Amino acid sequence: MDLLCSPPWVLAQVERRMDDWRRSAGEWSHRAARFTARAQRRRETAYDRALRTVERHLQHASPSDSARTRHRFIAAFARFAAEAMDLGPQAVDLLTSGFLPVGIQLAQWARRFDPDLSQAGIVQATRNAWTACGLQPLLGARLGLTPAILGYSLIYPYSDNFLDQQSVSREQKRSFAERFGRRLRGELIPPADDREASLWQLVSLIERQFARPLYPEVYASLLAIHRAQGDSVQQMGAAETIEHDELLRITCAKGGTSVLADAYLVRGSGLTAQQAEFAFAWGVLLQLGDDLQDIGEDLQRGSLTLFTRAVRAGCPLDALVAQLLNFSEAVAAQLDALPHGHAFYRDLLRMSWRSLALMAVAQYPSFFTAEFAASLEAHSPFRFAFLRERRARLAGQTGLFDRLFQTVVAEPDDRRNWFLHPNGVAGDVDAPAGHLDCAAQPGGDVCGGRLRLEPRHGGGGDIRGLRAGADVQPRDGGAGSDFAVQRKRAGNRKLQFGGHVERERGDDYVEWSADSAQRSRHRDGDRDQRAGCDEVGYSNGDRPAADGWIHDYIGRGEL
Known about the structure:
Layout (H helix, E strand, L loop, with lengths): L6 H17 L13 H23 L6 H19 L4 H25 L5 H17 L11 H12 L1 H5 L5 H15 L9 H16 L6 H17 L11 H24 L5 H21 L1 H7 L4 H7 L5 H20 L5 H21 L6 H8 L6 H12 L2 H12 L19 E2 L20 E3 L7 E4 L18 E2 L9 E4 L2 E6 L2 E6 L5 E4 L37
Parallel strand pairs: 1-2, 3-4
Antiparallel strand pairs: 2-3, 5-6, 6-7, 7-8
Helix pairs in contact: 1-11, 1-15, 2-3, 3-4, 4-5, 5-6, 5-11, 6-9, 8-10, 10-11, 11-12, 12-15, 12-16, 15-16, 16-18
């Protein structure tokens, strides 16, 4: 059976999305809400109030109270989202309790993984992670950062940006792409430099969550985006040598395969055709939106996109942006057909898609006619002049961004990694009370060594990560007994801690109680558990016990 990420399937999807793009030509239907000048000024007041709050908290922040400052920042954002963006409580909670923590966790992990990784690189990886985590509610998964999403998101600053550099020769790019492709296919070739060493470790994060023999779609989708990135090298310094249809084809392939890989990193396997097609279409939309927002930078470095071509030809971007907005409506129709995802979340996505175009029009007024800009400004929560003024003001306050970023990534000195160990440390690892780490052998699918943990409520224990397909008999015992991770077949694992053993098979899982020999079956949706994803469950309600469920068997949780 053909995979929903095979080269023929990807080519077919590219053609379909190109057709959707062509059908989207014409005036924008203007289905979005309109804002009066008075309503815009009210939201601008809320914007400035939130900005002053962040500045005040940062002035008094210190490394010792970084967590408190982060909480205040999130609270200020929540007020801003409610007052300035008219978001309801559910949407605000999703942003502040879901997406913002994902960004903070990724930034903290990335800084430990590579202290030299730039702030811009970490922000880029965070945006990639937000897209992948944004798919989770739509695919029936719990929103949260996973090892695979973390690894994939951080690959971009090391690979995609390298391929975009004008100073790197085509031969260097070709050689790197060939070696990276071999690593994505599973070859354990030694890294040639520090960049490859980092990339190899990030691929290992994905391999530890998704064993290659059990999840071929994951790696087929990664190879699909790898091929598309290689083709996109043509856009650098290409002048006008690429035909319009070929340029559109490259754009659709790169964007579509990127988010298709996100979808497989969320589900592992079992995507429906409907889900895969939506992910691909969303990726195309985001790629076009990024190309529009990056038009200034792309013009400077000589990168060819649909938008830079139009500007170089002296054409206003009115028609292309209207086409982009209409295309977003076509993607929204696919979104509405998905079985998962609340209505408020779908509305939030639509708003974010429109903002891609509105922010670009506000930032680059010279690329648009005054009439077109005015027609779009009526659909913006803020006046375009206000957005330009605040952007210029903030651009001159680099210290503010630096302080905010350092506060976000700061951690108490005695806190251990909340996720997989960045450098794949092998051997025994001690963990403080309440935290799990993961001992892992770099470059392979073996989690080597032993992790000793001390649960908050007493007891001890250890975790052993095993090569996929290995058998281990979990030990019996009470609170603080050993537990083991077992992967034998697709989506299966066994956990034991304090006498509780769990096995997961796809979206269904079976729970055993070692004490009473009772057995119960849970269907998809009864709990927030999915194959390869996180799980939180406790034996005594909302307070974790030493003999309770394990949170995130691959290493993140708190007991």
